[in-house]
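[job 4471] stage=fold_predict status=RUNNING
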Amino acid sequence: MTGIAKGAEELALMEAAKRVLPGGGFGNFANDIIIRSGQGGHVSDVSGRDYIDYLLGSGPMFIGHNHPAVTEAVLAQIPLGTTFFANNEPGIHLAEAIVDAVPCVEQVRFLTSGTEADFYAMRLARAYRGKPKIVKFEGGYHGMSDWGLMSLAPKRMANFPEAVPDSPGIPDSVRNDVLVAPFNDIEAAVRLIEAHQDEIGGVIMEPLQRLIPPKPGFLQAVRDVTARLGIPLIFDEVVTGFRFAYGGAQEFYGVTPDICTMGKIVGGGFALSAIGGKAEIMALFDKAAVGEDRFLTQIGTLSGNPVAAVAGLATLAVLREPGTYDKVHAMGRALMDGLTTLIAEAGIPAQCLGEPVLFDVVYAAGDMRDYRALLRQDMAMQKHVNTVLRSRGILKGDSKYYLSTAHTAADIAQTLDAFRAALGSLPASRKVA
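[job 4471] inference complete, writing structure tokens
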């Protein structure tokens, strides 16, 4: 990164990456840092620098890196076998734990990525209802499938419900099977669902859309209209599952869907995701229950592999310890409150957006109710602040602080000091009176 000297080993690895990886990276985070290790709420790069880690592997490391309970469970499982393509004891026990925890889940089907889970959840809803279209909300992220990449981050603002593809290579026909609504607009969402009820297979949404919290009554309104019309409602809880509460965002917000997807935390940092839902709907994965014509084929080589399952079980056991969620929410709230105070003191048009366990600073004033409102933010200011934060030992994504149970009060204090310095380095023209 500009302004941070790299050691010879890290520079050599970066050059190797440029030769063998498109763009010099994995397609995820910035390619100008190479992480060597993680411990608790911190990571270290190949050049030996320590960072407070708010990236958390894009979220899965909710109880911190190298948690002893997870490491012990994984090391005990590896000599017994790493994958079988068959039922195994840890996978069955993890399914039991998910059913016990998540309000909408009566049965579980395992996969290996959030993209897979969302893709199959949409297919499941369409198959269950026998209808071709999916409703999603503009700006909502549901993985890398053709359907998920409709109107995730459209550069052209279309009239609702027109879908806009976010990537080349997506057939034009997919656009016709996705209907797009504005997030947090009850009237528009209900009107769209009612108008297209005879062709909608399901509605998919993030309960917290990226960073945008649902307005009071919005999730319930979508739940009410889909229930009334018999349309499956899918909560994409790949990010929020087991993070907002032990029962996920559906417990946190008090609204129960028909189907949900889970990933990240549920695999304890290993490749595992899941679809869960009502037994009547999940039965489509069981040929004996529904017959040849309605049977939904789903196969995955590593689905429910025992290493990921024991990591997930160990993680959930830690999360069940009394006070765990109170502590991490309090830590996140302290960081949000501190950042808000510094923003006000500096006279910056910005605000914290999200929930205490998952949020960011958005560099814009006014109500951030949907994707189009977020387009008002000053991305140059965000980039500048994030660059200064990294130079001062704070690692975060472009648009998220992920909190973990491993972060400490000292981490929060250091982060606030770094943020104060970042705001202080902004040119006067970026500030307001």
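[job 4471] summary: The radius of gyration is 22 Å.
[job 4471] exit 0
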